Amino acid sequence: DTFLFWSAKDAASGASGGKQRQVELKGSARDVSDILDTITAACMQLCEMIDKEEHQRKLMGLGSDDGEDGSSVGQASSSSTAGGADKKGFVGWIANKVTRTNSGGADNNGAAAEEAGEDGATNVIPEGVEYWKQPDYDGWMQSQGDHIKTWRRRWFVLKDGYLFRFLNDKVLPQSKPRGVINLSQCLDVSKPTKDSNQGATIQVTVQRKGAQVNLLLVADSKAERDLWLEIMKRAKEDISAGKEKAKRDKAKAEREREEKAKQKSAEEYLKSLKSFEEEANRSKKKVEARQERRPSAPSQHSAVHQPHQYVAEQPPSVQSWQPPPPPPQQQPPQQQQSNWKVCYTPDGSVYYYNTITGVTQWEAP
C-alpha cells in the first residue's frame, strides 16, 4: 500500500499557495494503516491543544483572534506546536482538515460533535442535569474510539443516569462534556465476553443505526472497574424502575381524573335534579295559594246565606193569615238585577255570582 500527503505551503516564503509537494511512503498494509492512525491521532491531539488554548483565552476575556500580546491565534498556535506547519507541513495540513471538520459540526452539537468519532455513545447534552456538582460518582477511566483505536484518559462523571466525559477533573458549570452516554438507552452494561488487553474493562452495549455497538471503558484497577460496573448497573436499574413507576403513576392519575370527572358529573346531575324538584314545589305552592285566594262558584247543593229570603212552611189551616212583610233593608245595587246573586266566603267576604254566565267576581256588577 501507498501513503500520500501534500504540502501546499512554500517553505521559503512561508506563505500558502506555493508549489504542491508530494511525499510517498510505501510499505505493507499494516504499516501504512498504523502510520495513518498515528498521524491522525497526533493531529486530533494537536486540535485539542489548540481548542484548549482558545478556551483559556475566552475565559480570560480575550477575543478569538487576538492573544494577550495582540498576536493572532494562528501565530500562537504555530509557536505552541513546535514550529507548526513549517516543520510539520503534513501534520498542519491534516490538523487544518480535522479542525475544519470539527468546527463545521460544532454549530449543531457543540463539544459533543467534536469527538463524535471517538466513541459511538456521544449524544446530545441533556438540559437540566447539573453535572458539575454532587455527582453520583466520578473518576478516571480510559475510552477507546470506534475509528481511531487509541486509548485516552478522561474524567467521567455519572449524574442522573448520564455518564459524562471531560478532558480533566476540573468540571465547572461552563465546562462542556466531550461525550455523553445515556444509560437509559443502553442495552447492557457488563464485563466484556473476552478479556481485553487493557485489563479492567467495562463493556457498554448500545443500539445505533439498527446495530448493536459495544463501547469499552477501562478503569485504573479491577476493583475500580467493579465499583463502576455496580454503580452504572444500579443507575440503569433505577432509570428503568423510575420509568415503570412513572407509567404506573400516570395510569393511576388518569384513572383518578376519570373517577373525579364521573363523580363531578353525578353530583351536578343530582344538584340539577334537586333544583328542579325545589322549583316544581315552589310553583305548586304558588298555584295552591292562588287557588285558595280565588273565589269559587257556589255549589248547587250548598246553602247560600241570603237574609230575608227564607219562607217557612205553614200549615194549610193558617195559610190565610200572612204576617206583615218586614221592612225593606238597604241592598247593594247589584242585587236589583235578577241574574246576579250575593254570596259569602267562609271568612265573610262578599262576592258576586252570575247564575246565567257563571262568572264570579269580587267587584259589584
TrEMBL record:
<dbReference type="Pfam" id="PF00397">
    <property type="entry name" value="WW"/>
</dbReference>
<dbReference type="Pfam" id="PF00169">
    <property type="entry name" value="PH"/>
</dbReference>
<dbReference type="InterPro" id="IPR051707">
    <property type="entry name" value="PI-Interact_SigTrans_Reg"/>
</dbReference>
<dbReference type="InterPro" id="IPR001202">
    <property type="entry name" value="WW_dom"/>
</dbReference>
<feature type="compositionally biased region" description="Low complexity">
    <location>
        <begin position="70"/>
        <end position="84"/>
    </location>
</feature>
<feature type="region of interest" description="Disordered">
    <location>
        <begin position="60"/>
        <end position="84"/>
    </location>
</feature>
<dbReference type="InterPro" id="IPR011993">
    <property type="entry name" value="PH-like_dom_sf"/>
</dbReference>
<feature type="domain" description="WW">
    <location>
        <begin position="334"/>
        <end position="365"/>
    </location>
</feature>
<feature type="domain" description="PH">
    <location>
        <begin position="134"/>
        <end position="237"/>
    </location>
</feature>
<dbReference type="InterPro" id="IPR036020">
    <property type="entry name" value="WW_dom_sf"/>
</dbReference>
<protein>
    <submittedName>
        <fullName>Uncharacterized protein</fullName>
    </submittedName>
</protein>
<dbReference type="InterPro" id="IPR001849">
    <property type="entry name" value="PH_domain"/>
</dbReference>
<feature type="compositionally biased region" description="Pro residues">
    <location>
        <begin position="322"/>
        <end position="331"/>
    </location>
</feature>
<feature type="compositionally biased region" description="Basic and acidic residues">
    <location>
        <begin position="240"/>
        <end position="295"/>
    </location>
</feature>
<feature type="region of interest" description="Disordered">
    <location>
        <begin position="240"/>
        <end position="341"/>
    </location>
</feature>
